[in-house]
Amino acid sequence: MRHSYLDQYSDLNSPIHALDPRTKIIALLSFLFIVIFTPIVQVQKFLVYGTLILSLVIISRLPIKFVMKRSLIIVPFVGIVAIGLPFLGGGGGSLNFGIFSTTQSALLIFLNVLVKSWLCVLAMIVLTSTTSFPKLMNGFQRLKMPVVYVMIISFMYRFIFILEDELERMSRARNARTFNAKWSQKIRAIGGAIGNLFVRSYERGERVYTAMRSRGFSGEIKLISELKMGRADIFFIATFPMLLALILVV
Amino acid sequence: MKAVELSNLHYAYPDGTKALCGVDLKVNEGESVYLVGPNGSGKSTLLLHLNGTLRPQKGQIQIFGMDVYENLQEVKRKVGLVFQNPDDQLFMPTVFEDVAFGPVNLKIEKKEVERRVEKSLEVVGLVGFEKRSSHHLSYGEKKRAAIATVLAMDPEILVFDEPTLALDPWIKKNFIDFLKKVGKGRTIIVSGHDLELMKLCNQTYLMKNGRIVKKVRKKSEIFKNL
Q: DSSP 3-state assignment of B165?
């Protein structure tokens, strides 16, 4: 079965891939903060941010189409904001787009959400696609993220594909036995599947815990990490946030 | 000394299912024992007692003369359990971390951990897989990786729960030889209903309804008494 792995392009070879995950995480965080705190009316700055992130995509040799497709993840979130637009008041005169009318300030709120979340998601895609998942977790751990969180996320990423396979098998088995089912029947079946999946993952959790206990696990998580900062990291970590700060100030 | 000594072991699951109803078993050091029996005969339940995961409601378990429940950590180091489903045993982001998980828990120093991981992966033939994620491995590779995670603990007793389950005959053919190689110099306890596994062990016992019914010498004997 095909899965959409988070890090499917992490084995490419590029300067961005070669950076230490810690460098990339710090750069990402500074990028997020600065983008979020830039007022939306300063259009030129957002153009610069866009260019910056796009050049990172190009340097990292990620397929542009893949990056763009993945960034569509923001659509539902932005969509929810868009639904609320006609009900937002504020000044700035009203705008009409056919049957859809809103105020200027409401439109600004919408643009704020759209542009910022898109830029942030692009930056996150660059991080997660150029770093293999274990390395990413290692980076977070070395940056003093509590080890329990690191483990929870690692477990989730380890088992989510197995759950996905299970779900697919279950829905295949269901489809093999249902013809022309009514909506209400389908909903009931899906509800059952969710419950079933929950029980299965609970049981798997028990088995994994047994396996952990069998290898001497006593509640204290210890991890070995192998990360080294290089010259490129120092250069990147020194210049990238500074560049961002410069854009913000100017 | 007996590596494993079980006497009159009883266990019932919380829902009332009686899984073990008086199991007696003695395994000498260096011996290999195959527990064969139909599904639900209590094989897996029995194996989970060997390293103290389950606690019997009645009866005694001794590993190298030690009471299991008074020496839990020591017993967990000595008894390496390889579970049925490798996906339950491989839970860390990379193969390296999975194999290192046990030794790290034993508070072994880093250099030695690395040495053990390297050695275990060499034994199972997965050198170069250190940085791979286990969900990218094939089923046969996962089985091998799961065995490596246990070997890294350097156990004296190796326990396999249905090791050839879901393996195709081509992989299985080499897998039994492979298990032989892995188990060299160790006490081995294997459960299953794959009759080819009889080749792997010096002793075969038939389990039925939570009891060890008899010693089996020939494949055909398992169908009598059932």
A: coil
Residue A212 CB burial class (10 angstroms; 0-12, 13-18, ≥19): buried
| Nearest by CB: B91 against A132, A208, A222 | A208
Contact A9, A63 (CB under 8 A): yes
Among chain B residues, CA nearest to A156: B91
User: Which positions in chain A touch B131 (Cβ < 8 Å)?
Assistant: 132, 134
Residue ranges of chain B whose CB lies within 8 Å of a chain A CB: 48, 51, 53, 73, 76-77, 80-81, 83, 85, 87-94, 97, 100-102, 104-106, 110, 113, 131, 133-135, 149-150, 153
Task: Judge whether B57 and B18 are in contact, CB under 8 Å.
Answer: no
A209 at the B interface (CB within 8 A)?
Answer: no
Q: What is the pLDDT of residues A30-73, one digit of tens each?
A: 999 999 988 888 888 999 999 999 999 999 999 999 999 999 99
Chain segment B72-123, per-residue pLDDT in tens: 889 999 999 999 999 999 999 899 999 999 999 988 899 999 999 999 999 9
User: Out of A154, A159, A217, whose CB is closest to B105?
Assistant: A217
Residue of B nearest to A160 (CA): B135
Class of domain B2-223: alpha beta
Question: E strands, chain B, where?
Answer: 2-12, 18-28, 32-36, 58-63, 66-67, 79-82, 157-161, 187-192, 203-208, 211-215
Nearest by CB to residue B93, choosing from A158, A207, A208, is A158
DSSP of chain A: -----TTTTTTS--HHHHS-HHHHHHHHHHHHHHHHHS-TT-HHHHHHHHHHHHHHHHHTT--HHHHHHHHGGGHHHHHHHHHHGGG---SS-EEEETTEEEEHHHHHHHHHHHHHHHHHHHHHHHHHHHS-HHHHHHHHHHTT--HHHHHHHHHHHHHHHHHHHHHHHHHHHHHHH-SS--HHHHHHHHHHHHHHHHHHHHHHHHHHHHHHHHTT--S-----------HHHHHHHHHHHHHHHHHHH-
Q: Give the model's confidence band at A101: pLDDT under 50 very low, under 70 low, under 90 confident, else very high.
A: low
Please state the ipTM of this predicted complex: 0.85
Q: Do A157 and B93 touch (CB under 8 A)?
A: yes
Confidence of residue A183 (pLDDT cuts 50, 70, 90): confident
pLDDT on residue A91: 62
Q: Which tokens belong to B103?
A: 């030794």
Tokens of B180: 């032989």
> Domain residue spans in chain B?
2-223
